[in-house]
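Notebook, p. 212. Picked up where the previous page left off. The plan for this session was modest: take the two constructs that came back from the sequencing core last week, fold each one, and keep the raw output in the notebook itself so nobody has to go hunting through shared drives later. Recording the first one now, exactly as returned: residue sequence, then the structure token string.
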Amino acid sequence: MSDWIREQFLIEFPNMWGAPDWAVPAFIAGGLLFLLILYSYRVIKAPLWLKSCCGLLKTFAILLLIATLVEPMRSDLKPTPGVNVFVILADQSQSLQLTDPGQSSSRADTLKATLNREQAWQVRLGQDFEVRRYQFDSQLSGVSDFDEYTAQGEGSSIVSSLNTIADRFRDRPTAGMLLFTDGNATDLAAADLSGTEIDWSQFPSVYPVVLGKEESGKDISVRRVTASQTNFEAAPVTIMAEVSASGIIGESVVIELLDEKSDVLQTEIINDVQNDQTFAVRFQVKPEQRGVLSYQVRAFRDAEQGVFEKPEKSTEATLLNNTRLVMVNRGRGPYKILYVSGRPNWEFKFLNRALAGDDEIIIHALIRIAKREPKFQFREKDSNANRIFTNTDDEKKEQVERYDEPVLLRVGKMNPGELSGGFPKTREELFNYHAVILDDLEAEFFTQDQKSLLQDFVSQRGGGFMMLGGMESFVDGEYHRTPIGEMLPVYLSGVRQSSGYDAYRLELTREGKLEPWIRVRSTEQEERLRLSEMPLLQTLNPVGALKPAASLLTIIRNSKSETAPALVTQRYGKGRTCALMIGDLWRWKLHQNAPDNEDLEKVWRQTARWLVGEVPQRVLVDSTRKLDNPIHPIEISIDVNDENYRPLDNADVKIEITPPDGEVVKLVASPNEAFSGKYTSNYVSRATGIYRAKVMTSNPDGSEISQSETGWISEPATDEFLTLKPNLEFLETIAEKTGGEIIKIDALEKFVRTLPDREIPVVEPEIHSIWHKWSVFLLAVGLLASEWGLRRWKGLA
């Protein structure tokens, strides 16, 4: 009825004429009638205003009637019926099951009633357009109607669904899309929740219809949980949780960290929480197990203890966003360190003791207990064995070092024959280690090939290298102009010789204070106290200037307040190198106040972890989620290297995935054509929970390289309920970038009526006569009747 009234009473201006030949007669007739009216009112005796009003009323009425002679008409463009496509796209994710405050029905129930095909707005839309209907959650599906609509989906792939529809109708004239959603997309990157970085130019006009209200009920949401592993001992694993609360004022929120057995490890309480407050909580744990581990962070109101065991106690809008899982991979070790020393010393004693309690690090040591003798030395007995074995049962054994070879003591749990030939002579043997530490050993100990091999170990393999400040290290060890000296972060030329005995105090530089593996205590004040209580050091290897890329982390200061570098690091090729010019850190442990603390042991453990922390493995496994895909597949990427740590092609890579239901899925990774030595495989996580993957790699000849582990978390429901409020910013961005606008759900009928007046791809002309409307003649009669009534009222004839 309202449309009929609008059409009948809408006065339009003509833009064409049906009978232009009648224009002259109509103009003449109109002019004569105007003169007649002017003459008739001139002779009447009446006030001027009255004659003017009556004359104008009669003139307008005559003009409306005279105009019918030229048949004024209006030509407009309207959508060609059934040619243009108009898409109705409805979100069916779980978040629409929520009931907003003050509402009796859920968002899903309201939407289902609106999407009924018998609704007037849909009937009108179908008269002008070819209507296509779709619904989406994590995937897009076409429907003929929405009678079976249910909001059960575990995702809201808004961007992916819009992309799919845009591609599907790219070659069809598309008038626009009505998007019914709350705007909380699960396929948006966390850094772009407003969608500003998406190219919207490919889309037709999108008209978002917002579901839900800005006011939400009580809700606590664990928005994000991240885990990071560090090389320093104070917090090997740090778990950060971001929690938000809405509808809660002045209450306390409890955040718990649980292990895989659902045992509570740590608890934090945030008091006096305010509405729409977001806060971060940090947990620090040291896992005892290795491999892929998972933790759970959950948050709830302190007044609702036990709500997860009895959900009916909850007064929140939903509990599906109160928990999140996070995964930690502790299976990258163990790492192997090769320690080589020119003589037994105190430094190795405490270093070995410190690393003995670290399950992630294995240390093998070569300690020289006797130097080699010159070849020309006179021998009293006809034996090649070194004199240290004289008159012993070992003298005749083949593995006993000769007189012209150094006598090396092997320390550590080694395989039979491992390091039996001394320092490694091949890449395969040396590259099996992750770091090398040299202490109190002259450069002459190594052959030229071993020096170059050690340089390749750092630059090509990416290993860690450290030189300690023994008596025959650095300048005194004659490492100047050697491949090993080139790796050091300090120059060995132009060294000012030490003036003699002095005592040194150790200090941290500003850069050193920022390095976690350098710090031992948790606060700067405690760290300053620790350094002040350290005993004075007496052994320092003087070196030259720092190299351009070096980082000075600690210095020493003598009694004259003169300073010199003590610990310097730098990157070298793919690896990193470190120079410790101090040769008697062991005094720290022998000090009378030191035996009761573990500071020195902690220093060595953190230093060793820093050395091996970024050393690449032969097989590197990574699993990442592809956010640009509507079903969010996991891409498992494997980088495989050969014994020389060069990319290995033709490897055999097999994957065994254990989903939450425990049924193992076996996959084979395919080579990546773009990158040598890289293999990939995709897997779709359809169930909620923890996924573990075991990657088995083999050489082309079938020999095993390694077995690695990785894992990931799938929480579609938690992502879906990340926030309960509509994402208006994202929906406004869609409307603005595509040329659409935000539509209210109760204004759909009005919106559909205005569609013909908008830009439509395919249109046709529509011509209609303006004067065929009875409202125009009613207006003319009304003008004449008003003129007659006005004259009768004032008593005019």
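Okay, moving on. Second construct, recorded in the same format:
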Amino acid sequence: MFMKIFRYIFLLLFLCRRSLEHSVLKRSIDLIAAHSLVVDSRLPREIAPNSYTIDLHPFPEEGYFKGNVKINLTWHEPMDKITLHVHEDLIIDHSELKVTQYVPDDEKLRSLSAPYEPVEIKVKRSEVIPKQPLYIIHLEKQLKTGTQCVVDMTYSGKLYNDTSEGLFRSHYINTLTGEKQWFVASQLRPNLARKVFPCFDEPAFKANFVVSIVRCNTMKSLSNMPLSKSEELRPNSKWVRDYFEESPPMSTFTFGVLVSDFVSVSVNKTNEDNSGPKINIWATPDFINAVQNTTEKIYTSVRALEKLWDFKFPLPKLDCVALPNYQGTRPADNWGLIFFKESELSGKGSWLITHELVYQWLGALATPFWWSDAHINNALARYVTSYITLQVSDGKETFHNWPMTMLYSIYYEFSKRYPHGKVMAIKQDSSSTKTELLFRMLNYTLGEKTFNSGLQRFMADRQYRTFFGDDVWSSITEQARIDGTLDESITANEIAGSWISKDRLPVLNVIRSSDGTTATITQRVYLRERPHDVPEQEKFLWWIPIVLITQDKLNFSNSFPVKWMKREREVSLSDLPKKDTFIIVNPEEIGPFPVNYDATNWNLLAQFLQSDNRNKIPVNTRAKLLHDAWNLAYAGDLSFSTALDMTLFLKYEREYLAWDPVFTMIDHIGRHIDGSGVHKKFLMYVRMLLTPLYEELGIEAQEGESEGKANLRSSSKVFLCQAGYKPCIEEAQHAFDKWMKAENPDEGNPVANQYICPVFKWGSKEEWEFGLERVINFPPGRKPSERTYLLKTLAGCPIDSWKIEKILNITILEQNGNFTDNDIYLVFSMLTGSSSGYTTLFNYLTKNWNGLKKAFENKPQLWNSLITSSTSVFKTQEGLDMVTKLYKNKQHDFGTADFVITKAIKNIKEEAKWSNDNLPVIENWLQKYLNLEKNVTASEENKFL
């Protein structure tokens, strides 16, 4: 139960930490959902836009806008129709539609210098294509190659009020006047420009924009370019039209608009040559003070990015806006006009702000030709963001512990028998993460100067244009050739291709000779889940850089490979130190792959890490060695005795980055140990590991302490609290007592989430039943998520079987009307996290078989969920025997769940084999460790319930 609770709380923390990461990863043109846009309605290539002249007149209070667009077009092939993207919500005034030819279609006439009189081209008809965002204008004649025309269209549309998409409106309350203040803004990525004006809504169709906006005279308007002039629509009118300077060529998704009464603060700095954009931060009058300190972060990041790209900010100005009530999951990174949530722009860190600024170059200035290349854009933007953030913060801002958190998550994902399952978004995310790490690998192995110069070469070549994914790798290869940092037989394109084309990662196995002076290195697919029966895995080969560190030369600044594995199964190394000296391959996690060694080398590493010289190995490499050892052991490639030896240095370790993989690994191993006889010994070991650390860190945060120290304290506390650490339980019960004594406890929950699970696990019967009453009596006016969390902890936290049985009786057999089918799904799911949970559920199923069958006779999905949750999570031979016996006794009575239990039995056999192979090894190691530490063990155990 302990491991289940820890896993649940740990995952909550992990997801919270990853939530920022994911929120900043899915941006603009490189949405993780970009795969769905590959089949978007494509426009013919015969005609392309040169420019848009757009006039918009929003009516915020009324909720609609009027618009006019003039699109200057060039014919690249003969064509008698014009096809545009138009959203179904856009209403075209067909009577005002006009097509005027400004350049003759006769090549001889075009060669003459004489002026050409514009000619109106008759429109035969126009049509909206059903169920597609397409609008086709049929002309009376076919126009030839080289013709230029202007399409003039008047239209109207709605200001979206429930979503921050297209052209939308929202409001805030002015605290001085109490009045509602409307504002209008736009969010057009990835293909929402068609909601605002008829256009060629694809990234490859870049064009110049000339924009004018009509606004109330008490408001201001912003667009991508600086304001040129303003004029009243007519004398004494409240309406003013603002005209903006013409933009450089840009894609439709980067077009932006804001009409508001916001105020601004400027960044009063210029570059040494007085160049650079004019930077303003905008917010409501009440919020402007909260973003005052953001100006320095924006200026610093812009300057760092200009230096990286060797290209000045592409536009003369940059406006960053804190939008109240902004509902977008990501900032709207229009070119020169970025919309943030208020909390995003006023936050402490600079990662998210820098990430949006990266897109001003990569995405707006240089743009992927089509969505199929979006993952390259996404990965490179993430890499550049992390690189710049570390640079401008001097390494103080750890954000998501780049790259360790990403590495560990993709190792887990790509090592599955079936990576991603059927979830395309997960595949897109993990693939982009892997590509981001490839950029990092090339930065190390080619050298920072060469790699950055390659990026500069790419940007110089693709500015104001579009690119394909291969263009990035080609630019890096060209620069590496010039600098002599890449062998003529190798290209970055080939290297990247071997990684991007596979939903897998390699593992290297390094076996040294008896005297240690030579080594054989082999590569194969890295697999954790059993059985390792991935089809054709022997064909999987990667281009892998072999970066080597030896104990006698601990120079971690040298990251150039001693050799490349050029899609070779095996290579050899020579001139290594003698056998009593360790080696490290892939230090600092230069490439995204684990490395296994022979037992002698692992033992040398474990001994060195326990010595006073351990800090000569940087923390990223210490974390990598620990992570690799545990994962290789979990996969069956390394003895758990060796992997556990690698944890012994943790009693001296105080860096959060080294501890970060420990919590994940304990969780993974705990899933197998939970419910076995080894479990209690493992818990004692973990408590002994964490208690001194937590007590040394102190209960309260210290002024000016690092983010890593705060995270380490938090993670340690969560784990210890769920393990029954007395001070933590007492603190949780004290907080919970205030809720129990509240006059009306159903009005709200005053208890922090971190305290609820420990109380439901270690607290009294009265405390747990109080929580149950709060779920049953939950008021409809409160947030449903609060009830969901409470129900999760009520079901998932208790270790007492009577609590679990009671909640099952209430929700299923008693059919309490306060619980829905979704609640029952949730309860089942929570019970799969621990042996006490799923064992109690299994026993409950066998004891109440007939009643449960009747309760779910018309709900096959719930029945299947029950069978899955109660039978598929066992890990031992004892569990296999229990499930097999049930299947034999009820073989013809499982109905739709028959396939569920047969699959469960097959999986449990694999898990039981793992347990039979590894639990004796783990138990022997733990017993030996606890015998050596028996005096410490007794004192530490007294601190736990």
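Notes on construct two before I forget. Residues 898-932 form the longest helix (35 residues).
Flagging for discussion at group meeting.
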